[in-house]
Amino acid sequence: AQLHYSVPEDREPGSPVGDLAKDLGVEVRSLVARNLRLVSEGGQRHFQVNLAAGVLLLDSRLDREVLCGQNPTCSLHLQLVMENPLQLHRVEVDVLDVNDNAPQFPKPEVVLEITEVANPGTRLPLEVAEDPDMGSNSISTYELSPSEHFALSINVRGDGVKMPEIVLEKALDREKVAVHHLTLTALDGGNPVKSGTAKVTIHVLDANDNPPVCDPPISKVHLEENVPVGTLVTKLNVTDLDEGPNGDVEYSFKISNNSPAKFTKLFSLDPRTGEIRTKAPLDYEESSAYEIAVRARDKGSPAMEGHCHLRVELIDINDNSPEIVLTSLSSPVQEDATPGTVIALIGVKDSDSGDNGQVRLHIAKELPFKLVSSFKEHFSLVTNGPLDREKASGYNITVRAVDSGSPQRATQKTFYLRIADVNDNAPNFSSPFDTAHIQENALPGTAVFSVSASDPDEGSNAKLSYSILDNGMQDIPISAYFRIDQDNGTIYTVRALDYEQDKVFQVPVEVKDAGSPALSSTAVVHVFILDENDNAPTIVYPSVPKGSAFHQTIPALAEPGYLVTKIVAVDADSGHNAWLSYQLQETAEALPFQVERRSGEIRIAQALKESEDPHRLVVEVRDNGTPSLSASVVIVISLEENSVQDFAKSLDLPKSSPKDTNLTLYLIISLVSISLVSCVMFALAVARC
Fold first, then answer.
1. For the segment 469-518, what is each residue's pLDDT rounded down to a tens digit?
2. CB 556 within 8 A of CB 596
3. How far apart are CA 312 and CA 288, in angstroms?
4. 102-to-71, 159, 161, 163, 209 alpha-carbon distances in Å
5. Of 143, 413, 514, 682, which alpha carbon lies 20 to 30 A from 453's?
6. Under DSSP, is residue 324 helix (H, G, I), strand (E, B) or coil?
């Protein structure tokens, strides 16, 4: 928005200029929170903001004549910046002229000469009075003291300046009056009226009675700025009806405070030919027009002079490139910023005028931003689509300004906009399923496996912590078996594991970032327990108390190969650790019996003698683990005189009992479990490949 105020130039510092809070439509108490601040475009600080009252105050006394000189309008441009949200308001303050300066002539006394043969109607130009005030406060009119021979005439120059001239109304007679004393008064249009005076002394001379005359007396020339030095501006057309020295004219610049000598640095005047040429580069942006006063003076005695007035108006050419001003930049910007969010406030200015000063701004079309015109020569850079820091963490934004001149002139400004991260990405495991193996009976604290996850966010949004979830699949919480390092994701055992109790664990792992709100994901680690030979074989038949022996009778006439009995043993371990072998412990004398290594059957190895005493056999059952574990049973074999017994009786096997049935069931369950574990491992290996 743009605010417009006006203030007279004579106001004291601290005077109120305008109610900002009311005109902006904001509450006074919010100005401090929104960090309302004032930015002057000119570099000088003339105003201040009272945040407590929301009022724009005058900071220093203004002098319109110092600030703007002779410009018809005098405006000071300010910028108000507010944050949360970021807004830019332009304030234009018109400095109003007051009648604080009285007219003043360049010289308090003016001496003029006029020949006595001058005809009525002869004009004597006078110096123009100065009044720094503008408008109605500037010079309004001139007055001349009463005179029998002279009257006052006022002409208006091309730039509106009133030029007084004394006009001869009645023929002069030097012999009667040689000197005339008059008073010239300049009056302004202020209220109250202020005035200034100058004494005019007119000497009546004899001789040269025709002054040089300019044709036309007031002329205008249009000239392009930046023309080469030495370019002819114009040649004055001056005539003098006299002859000889009285008609020989010399030219010179006429300098007055109302027509400053600045133009003498830019233009040269040939005193003989009256040619006016440039002698320095002309700049439209410095001044668009120059008023040149030329005095044409003859060489008569007394000399007579005429005055030529030339207005040189410059034609603007496109010689200034646009200027880009980055007023404010909000960097970084959140990646979840909604479309239309203001990113930057950009101002542009071009010192040229007309089409040469009309500027357009552009940015690359592929950027997710666009330019929105706030008001004249001010733009807002806003988001035009979604931002994603994971795809682009920042943008180099090049703003290009092009004017409408011919040929066009352009400039560009590049700035970097950083995109701030928001927690919009959940952590991801490298694999949702992992497999790990660990020996049973490993010490608590043994590392099992390390899971790894990544998060494309940054900072705290990418800081990950790991934890184990209890999924209720086991009777005992999974946290009773395993723990995880929350920083690096390494899984450790909490206690020793028993293969015979649990052969595989499903360990659900959750990874969570430190964002707000936190995001998470899960993965499952299948931990397979590797068997260790930690169980000795158990002899289930014959079942005898520890330290006792099993007694078995056989027919005395049994022949070699006769099945005496069979040792049945089991091992709670699996694989090689559960492969059992049977053997007889060596004794001092050879025994007529042998045991099958794999089946555990005890048979007669050689013919028996009828008078043999009972034989004592120690059968050892050993597994295939490392180190190997074993169990043994003592069997006492006695001969029986009866006839040959049938196989069942000789074996003396007990009848099936519920205990034997349970043992068989346990063996079947063990075999099925081992098969299932093997199938799961094979399936995981295939899926991983």
1. 886 656 788 888 889 999 999 999 998 888 888 888 889 999 999 888 89
2. no
3. 9
4. 18, 21, 16, 17, 37
5. 682
6. strand
Residue 684, classed as helix, strand or coil, is: helix
Report the pLDDT value the prediction gives residue 655, as an integer from 0 to 100.
42
* Alpha-carbon span 32 to 307, nearest angstrom: 62
Q: Judge contact between 250 and 236, C-beta under 8 A.
A: no
* Residue 365 φ/ψ, nearest 5 degrees: -70, -30
End-to-end CA distance of the chain: 66
Q: CATH assignment of 538-639? A: 2.60.40.60
> What is the CA 21 to chain-centroid distance, rounded?
30
For 334-411, CATH number out of 1.10.287.600, 3.20.20.80, 3.40.190.10, 2.60.40.60 equals 2.60.40.60
Per-residue pLDDT, 522: 92
Residues 6 or more apart in contact with residue 676 via CB below 8 angstroms = none
List, by residue range, all CATH 2.60.40.60 domains of the chain.
Answer: 7-96, 109-205, 213-315, 334-411, 428-530, 538-639
* Residue 188 tokens, joined: 């302004």
Residue 345: C-alpha distances to residues 36, 352, 475, 577 (Å): 15, 23, 65, 79
Q: What percent of the chain has pLDDT over 70?
A: 93
Residue among 485, 482, 478 nearest 493 (CA) = 482
- Round to whole Å and give the CA distance between 645 and 557: 10
**Pair of tokens at residue 410:** 């352009």
Query: What is the CATH architecture assignment of 428-530?
Result: Sandwich (2.60)
Q: Which two tokens stand for residue 284?
A: 């439209």
**CB 174, CB 116: distance < 8 Å:** yes
Please tell me the distance from the alpha carbon of residue 587 to that of residue 616, in angstroms, as a whole number.
10
* β-bridge mates for residue 50, sequence order: 55
Structure tokens at 400: 């290009």
How do beta strands 213-214 and 123-125 pair? unpaired
Q: For residues 530 and 573, what is the distance between their CA atoms, to the nearest angstrom?
A: 10
How would CATH label the architecture of 7-96? Sandwich (2.60)
Helix (H) / strand (E) containing 142: strand 139-144
User: Which of 291, 297, 295 lies closest to 310 in space, CA to CA?
Assistant: 291
Q: What is the dihedral of CA 342, 347, 353, 354, to 10 degrees?
A: 0
pLDDT given for residue 647 in this prediction: 41
Give Cβ neighbours of residue 213 (< 8 Å, ≥ 6 apart). Answer: 238, 239, 240, 306
- Topology (CATH level 3) of domain 213-315: Immunoglobulin-like (2.60.40)
Q: What is the pLDDT of residues 272-329, one digit of tens each?
A: 999 999 999 988 888 888 888 999 998 887 788 899 999 999 888 888 889 899 888 8
Look at 641 and 686; give whichever has higher pLDDT. Answer: 686
Task: Return the CATH class of domain 109-205.
Answer: mainly beta
Contact 451, 365 (CB under 8 A): no
pTM (2 d.p.): 0.50
Residue 100: phi and psi, rounded to 5, are -110, 10
DSSP tag of 217: S
User: Do residues 59 and 45 touch, judged by C-beta distance below 8 A?
Assistant: yes
Question: Quick one: tokens of 96?
Answer: 């109003």
